[in-house]
C-alpha cells in the first residue's frame, strides 16, 4: 500500500511540474529558451549578454538591437570650441584630433553642425549617425505633449532655457530606451537623405501636420489641420532639392515637435543653433 501511495504521489508531482513548465513556456509568447522549460533544457542565463558603452542605452525595439547616445552630443573638453557658434568653428573642432564628441549630462549640445560634420564627429567617437528608422525606435515613448510644458519636460517652448538647454535637463523627457531629449531641445540629424521628395523609393507628402506614418515613423500622409492622434506633430518637405533629414523638433517648435516631427526642407549642408545630433553603435556582446 505504501509503495502504491508513493507511486501515486510521484505521478501527481511529475504532472504538476510538467503542467507548470508548459504554462510557463506558453506565457513567454514563444520565447522558449527563456522559459522555465527552456532554461532546464538549454541552461540559458537570465542575465543580458548585450551591453552598451558608457552613456549609451540599448534599443531593443529594432529588428537588430543597437546602442544610442543617452544624451545629445556635446563637444569634449579638449575641443577648441565648447559651443561652436557656426559651421567654421565646428570644422576647427573636427580638424583637431584631440577634440572628441561626448554624450554627457549637463552640457550644451553641439550645434551649428552640418550633416557631413555630424557624421565625422560620430566617426571620431567610433560611432555613426543613426538611420531615420533607428532614431525613431530610440525615441519611442518620449512624452509628446501639445501644451503645458514645464522645466521637467521636453524643451519645446523655451521652457527649460532661452534656447537649447543643457543635456538631460528634462527628467520627464526620456524615451522607453532611456534616451533624453529626443523631442525638442535641438533638431537631430540622421544619416538618411531625400532626393526631390522621394525617400526609400516612395514619394513623400507635402508639408503639413502628420496624419499617418510608416514603421520608421516617417510620415506618408499629412493634412492641413492638427491631428491629435499624432500629437499635432508636423512634417516639413521641400520636394525640389536634395535634402537632409532632421527629427524631433527644437526648443521653440512647441506642439509641432515630437517623435513624428520630421524636417526634410534643407540641404545636408545646412547648420544652425537649433540643429544637433546624437550617435549610435552596434551592440557589444
Overview features:
single chain; 285 residues; alpha+beta; paralog of FGE (formylglycine-generating enzyme); 2 domains; seven-stranded mixed beta sheet; three-stranded antiparallel beta sheet; 14 strands; globular
Provide the helix percentage. Answer: 10-25%
Number of structural domains: 2
Number of strands: 14
Q: What structural class do you assign from the helix and strand content?
A: alpha+beta
| CATH T-level fold name of the largest domain | paralog of FGE (formylglycine-generating enzyme)
- In the CATH hierarchy, the architecture of the largest domain is Alpha-Beta Complex
Mean pLDDT: 85
Biggest sheet character: 7 strands, mixed
H/E series, N to C?
HHEEEHEHHEEEEEEEEEE
Alpha-carbon distance between the two ends:
57 Å
Count the helices. How many? Answer: 5
Calculate Rg over CA atoms: 24 Å
Principal-axis shape equals globular
Strand order of the largest sheet: 9-8-10-12-11-5-13
What is the highest CATH level, the class of the largest domain? Alpha Beta
Unreliable stretches: 1-49
**Portion in strands:** 15-25%
Amino acid at each position: 500500500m505504501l509503495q502504491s501511495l508513493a507511486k501515486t504521489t510521484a505521478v501527481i508531482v511529475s504532472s504538476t511540474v510538467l503542467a507548470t513548465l508548459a504554462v510557463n513556456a506558453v506565457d513567454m509568447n514563444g520565447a522558449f529558451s527563456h522559459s522555465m522549460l527552456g532554461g532546464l533544457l538549454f541552461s540559458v542565463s537570465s542575465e543580458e549578454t548585450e551591453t552598451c558603452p558608457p552613456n549609451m542605452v540599448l534599443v531593443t525595439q529594432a529588428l537588430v538591437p543597437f546602442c544610442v547616445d543617452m544624451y545629445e552630443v556635446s563637444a569634449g573638453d579638449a575641443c577648441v570650441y565648447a559651443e561652436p557658434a557656426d559651421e567654421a568653428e565646428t570644422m576647427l573642432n573636427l580638424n583637431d584630433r584631440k577634440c572628441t564628441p561626448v554624450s554627457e549630462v549637463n552640457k550644451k549640445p553641439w550645434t551649428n553642425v552640418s550633416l557631413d560634420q555630424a557624421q565625422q564627429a560620430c566617426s571620431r567617437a567610433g560611432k555613426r549617425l543613426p538611420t531615420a528608422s533607428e532614431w525613431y525606435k530610440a525615441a519611442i515613448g518620449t512624452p509628446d505633449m501639445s501644451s503645458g510644458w514645464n522645466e521637467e519636460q521636453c524643451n519645446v517652448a523655451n521652457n527649460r532655457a532661452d534656447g537649447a538647454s543643457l543635456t538631460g535637463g528634462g527628467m520627464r523627457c526620456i524615451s522607453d530606451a532611456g534616451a533624453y531629449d529626443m523631442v525638442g531641445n535641438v533638431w537631430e540629424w540622421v544619416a538618411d537623405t531625400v532626393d526631390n521628395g522621394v525617400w526609400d523609393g516612395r514619394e513623400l507628402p507635402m508639408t503639413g501636420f502628420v496624419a499617418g506614418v510608416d514603421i520608421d515613423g516617417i510620415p506618408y500622409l499629412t493634412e492641413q489641420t492638427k491631428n491629435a492622434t499624432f500629437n499635432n506633430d508636423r512634417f516639413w518637405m521641400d520636394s525640389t532639392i536634395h535634402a537632409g533629414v532632421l527629427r524631433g523638433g527644437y526648443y521653440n517648435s512647441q506642439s509641432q515637435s515630437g517623435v513624428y516631427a520630421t524636417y526634410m526642407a534643407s540641404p545636408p549642408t545646412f547648420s544652425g543653433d537649433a540643429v544637433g545630433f546624437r550617435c549610435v553603435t552596434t551592440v557589444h556582446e
